[in-house]
Design goal:
single chain, mainly alpha, Na+/H+ antiporter like fold, two-stranded antiparallel ribbon, 4 strands, globular
């Protein structure tokens, strides 16, 4: 568990620096963009490995459908709980309108996706990669991130109307799913870390190019292709037979990822990723409804014919941090309660401890949730719901190490947990 604590400390350090550094650096916006790109590259690296180790059983299509249903439920319940809290608790009754619901639905979506990169890095560091829990969580986390990315499209359309760019994003997602299914273990590419890092850079670069190009076409909306899916799909397509190598002390060839050097680099990438995830957290100061500050470029964007700047809430009230943190705590609890779904299913496959471990493992939030909030802010959504959302996301990140410790404790009393398979 030493690796888990180290990753947790790096995550905490990143979160602290993300709030302390910006005021002391001129042009921090450019640096934050570099941090974002580096984070995306590391995420792509991790997800290529996840896809490479993922076995798609084409004879179990019904089971995958069931897994997707569970993942959909585990992503939807937190979203619904938090949305209702935003509307009925954080919004005064006299201010509730149709726009309130739309804005709350989009902002609350941050609570839906499990952080695949953070989760897999932590579970691997805890030595749980061979367990039934890890294999099941891997499927559910990928599915619920996919569900979040796809559902963001209609949510964005509710705010800015129909845009062909958003339809293109959906089409690309389904093409990627088809490629993973059709060409699994097909590509004779190396899985050694130097090559994987190159693949990750190319994927991140392609995603950034698509986004910038789409912004040229229409400034108000960009095509966000999250690297999580293309990186995962590429990993599933890389041939395992092509990456068999002679392992030290072994009579037979093994997988290249079992090499000591590969494991060492993988952990270093995970460590850098955790630090960057923390650094990627938006600055929390100045986003309250009483002193809202939105980027000038964002303020110039049009939302249903109205400038986003007109949506800034101004109020002469005292900012009550105690009350805010109470809301943060409640929203965090609600979002994690919604993730408990896996604990009540898979009864024929695992013990209740293993099922509960899967549910707790789904608690961590991270890069995808932060992306949802950044998109929300870019559309002029602000006020207390964004303040609470950002703080709740930060709290969940801080608790990630604790979640993994709980998972490890739950699995510690499960006999023969290492030999169970999906």
């Amino acid at each position: 568990m030493k690796k888990v604590f180290l990753l947790s400390l790096l995550l905490l350090a990143g979160l602290i620096f993300s709030q302390v550094i910006p005021p002391f650096i001129d042009g921090y916006g450019n640096l934050s963009h570099v941090i974002k790109l580096a984070t995306v590259v590391c995420l792509a690296f991790i997800m290529i490995h996840v896809g490479y180790e993922f076995e798609i059983r084409k004879d179990r299509i019904k089971e995958y459908g069931y897994d997707y249903l569970i993942a959909f439920s585990a992503a939807t319940l937190p979203w619904i709980f938090v949305t209702f809290y935003f509307v009925f608790v954080l919004t005064p009754e006299t201010s509730r309108t149709g726009d309130t619901w739309v804005e709350s639905l989009l902002a609350a979506r941050f609570a839906a996706p499990t952080s695949a990169g953070v989760l897999f890095s932590m579970l691997a560091a805890a030595g749980l990669a061979s367990t039934w829990m890890f294999k099941k969580t891997r499927i559910l986390a990928i599915f619920d991130d996919l569900d979040t990315v796809i559902l963001m499209i209609p949510l964005q359309m509710l705010i800015i109307g129909f845009k062909i760019q958003l339809l293109i994003a959906i089409i690309i997602m389904f093409i990627l799913i088809w490629l993973a299914w059709r060409y699994m273990n097909f590509l004779r590419l190396s899985i050694r870390w130097k090559n994987v890092l190159l693949y990750a850079v190319l994927i991140a670069g392609a995603a950034e190019f698509i986004y910038l190009t789409s912004k040229i076409i229409d400034e108000t909306v960009g095509v966000h292709i999250e690297v999580l899916m293309p990186a995962f799909v590429l990993g599933t397509m890389i041939s395992k037979n092509h990456n068999r190598v002679k392992l030290r002390g072994a009579k037979h060839k093994g997988d290249a990822l079992e090499l000591k050097s590969e494991k060492k680099v993988s952990f270093i990438i995970s460590a850098v990723f955790m630090l960057l995830v923390g650094l990627s957290m938006p600055v929390l100061d100045g986003i309250s409804p009483f002193a809202q500050q939105i980027d000038k470029e964002i303020s110039g964007a049009y939302v249903k014919g109205k400038e986003a700047a007109n949506m800034v809430v101004q109020a002469e009230q005292t900012f009550n941090w105690g009350l805010i943190f109470l809301h943060v705590l409640i929203v965090t609890i609600l979002s994690n309660i919604g993730k408990i779904v896996p604990a009540f299913v898979y009864r024929k496959e695992a013990s209740w401890r293993e099922r509960l471990a899967v549910a707790v493992a789904m608690f961590p939030r991270g890069e995808v949730g932060a992306g949802v909030l950044i998109i929300s802010i870019s559309y002029g959504i602000g006020g207390i719901i964004v303040t609470v959302s950002l703080l709740s996301l930060a709290l969940n990140l801080l608790l990630t190490g604790l979640f993994i410790v709980i998972v490890n404790k739950l699995l510690g009393r499960v006999p023969n947990v290492q030999v169970k398979t999906t």
